[in-house]
Specification:
alpha/beta; Aminopeptidase; three-stranded antiparallel β-sheet; binds zinc ion
Length: about 300
């Protein structure tokens, strides 16, 4: 019998990999992906988190071609995420070792699955793995972009994968970054401009997906959207659960997310409308915020 999403998530959570500086190498996790995506095309891209190449080679970003070789690709759909997790910022009740190992045993309480990375962001990968057979049958290239250093904030992994895409002539039509957004779609935040095509936003609307508040968050979408303006953030789990001691995700939400993702990906694949990006009018945005600020000031008085 094939593993279900809960079982896959349990296996993913069991492999500790923290953001760099406090982490073990991520080979075990890379190997897990290689096994889960067996038969697909892989590229490992070493991180550049330190100045030591031998050290950097212990932490690898991963690109996977699910139904394609990793070169000369048009209209690719990219599913993106990061491997690294963060120990809880507060409270630091346990010692570092205690947190590392205690958190890697996923626990279930009713509909809730507890463990480090259940929300940020192994849940998304578990969803994708359950849909692998369907994804392999798509008529457009489907890729995964998986970084190892998102939580280190520099986002070099995402930059290096986009460099790899340029070198290999890989052109995505859409990048879906699976950071937790309660299964809603985020289109903008700091450094991530609201520049998606009307085509993509029409698809999102027709799929009945709700939108996440604009301007909230900070993710690799700001790197991806420079290369592909049709980047959205869409993942399961509550954003405010990230990095907390009782990080947990709803099994029901996680299960439903897989189907929502496939609905979206299927419509993107079939939709032949031209992809025309909005031109961002920065002056108008600045004017809007100025006005908002003035209104707020008036209300405060
Ligand atoms: Zn994250």
């Amino acid at each position: 019998m094939e593993k279900d999403v809960k079982e896959i998530l349990r296996e993913l959570v069991a492999i500790p990999y923290w953001f760099v500086g406090q982490s073990v190498p991520n080979k075990q996790l890379v190997d897990y992906f290689k096994e889960a995506f067996k038969g697909c095309d892989f590229a490992e891209i070493p991180s550049r988190m330190t100045n030591d190449p031998a050290e950097n080679a212990k932490y690898n970003n991963l690109v996977i071609g699910l139904n394609c070789k990793l070169e000369n690709l048009e209209r690719a759909i990219v599913l993106a995420g990061h491997m690294d997790t963060v120990p809880p910022f507060k409270p630091y009740e346990a010692g570092e070792d205690e947190i590392t190992f205690a958190d890697t045993t996923m626990k279930q309480d009713g509909d809730k699955l507890y463990g480090r990375g259940t929300v940020d962001m192994r849940g998304f990968f578990a969803s994708v793995i359950t849909k692998l057979d369907e994804l392999k049958k798509m008529n457009v290239p489907v890729l995964m972009s998986i970084t190892c250093d998102e939580e280190a904030f520099k986002m070099d992994g995402a930059k290096d994968i986009m460099k790899f895409f340029k070198e290999k002539n890989i052109k995505p039509q859409t990048i879906i970054l699976g950071e937790p957004r309660s299964s809603t779609v985020s289109t903008s935040h700091s450094g991530f401009p609201d520049n998606q095509s009307d085509r993509l936003m029409g698809i999102v609307k027709r799929q009945g997906l709700e939108l996440f508040p604009k301007g909230v968050g900070a993710t690799e979408a700001r790197v991806y959207s420079e290369y592909c303006p049709d980047t959205i953030v869409f993942g399961p789990g509550e954003r405010n659960m990230c990095h907390t001691p009782n990080e947990h995700i709803s099994l029901d939400e996680l299960t439903k997310f897989g189907d929502k993702l496939m609905g979206l990906v299927n419509e993107i694949e079939k939709n032949k409308e031209p992809i025309v990006f909005k031109t961002i009018d920065y002056a108008a945005i600045a004017e809007k915020y100025k006005k908002q600020k003035q209104e707020e000031d008036i209300q405060e008085r």
